[in-house]
Every structure is written in structure tokens, then in C-alpha cells.
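Give me C-alpha cells for this 180-residue protein.
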Amino acid sequence: MLTKNEVQTIINLHENHSIYTPWADAKTFHRITKELAKPFLKYKIDKVIGIESRGFIFASVVAYILKAGLVVIRKQKKESKQNLFFNYPLVEEKLTDYSKQKKTIVLENNPMAILKKDKILVVDDWFGTGEHAISVANIIKKINRGKIIGFSVIYNSMSLEKERKIQKIGKLHYLIKYNP
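Here you go.
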């Protein structure tokens, strides 16, 4: 668990500089990633899903800590509905994000990326409304492979109602309750 001092330092750096500033300090970055992974060490997670784009940063380190594979959920680019490299179909889920913009997130439906038996942890830097978390869960349900064990984020700005909804899907772990 982060200390009160660490939490306050992270919030101050975030608010007074940018969301990226706390990550530039090696000790703080290490503490954040370690704390994101810690509650899930006992679950023997097989795959960690990172949500584009900042979620990729933390998910990759958390996957390393948990000795798990990494799978990415991307934002759908307006100009392309096709995968550039392989012919795996894209599994889409539409959502409205914290800024009230309509977005689509996608997973390349590579049958080797997520297996039926896989235990999954979803990692991101911030859940503003929780819509990304629910959309990832819907994608996993659509492909009918893997089981979400939990969600781990740095900042949680969700309503209590949304937190409860997500907790019905899997364990919700966050480092900082943050309401800007």
C-alpha cells in the first residue's frame, strides 16, 4: 500500500505538472507498478490486459512482475477498421468515456492471445467513469475465452455505483481515490 505521503506526492505532481510526472521518478514508478500487481500475486494470473495508451505502460510491467503474458486493447482508429498485419477479426465494444466522447475499443481476436483457461487482470492508469473496464469485460465475454479476476488502476474517479458494478465482474484494486 502506498503511504499517505506517497499518495500526496503523486497527486501533487499530477496536478501541478502532468499525469506523467510521477512516473519519471524511478522509485515512484517502481512503487506504483509493484502496488498494482501485489494483490494479484496469489491468483496466478495468466494474462494482463492493458488499455490504450497509458495502460500499456503499467500493464507491461505488471505482467512482468506477475510472470504473465500481455494483451492490449486498442482504441479503434477512425480511418481503419482492419488489422494491418494479420487477418484476425477485431472484436469491438463501444463506450462513452469520461469526456462524454463516443469511442470504440478493440481486441484482435487471435485465438492464441487469450485461452479459455486464462485468468486475466485488467490494468490501466485511471478509471474515470468505469466504462473502459466494463467494455473490456464485454469483449472478454464476446470472445468466450478467459476469466477476468480483477482490475488494477492507479486513479479511481468512479462513482460508488460503478465500482459495485465492476466488483461484480472481478476484484477492483486502486491506489488512489481521486476526484479532480
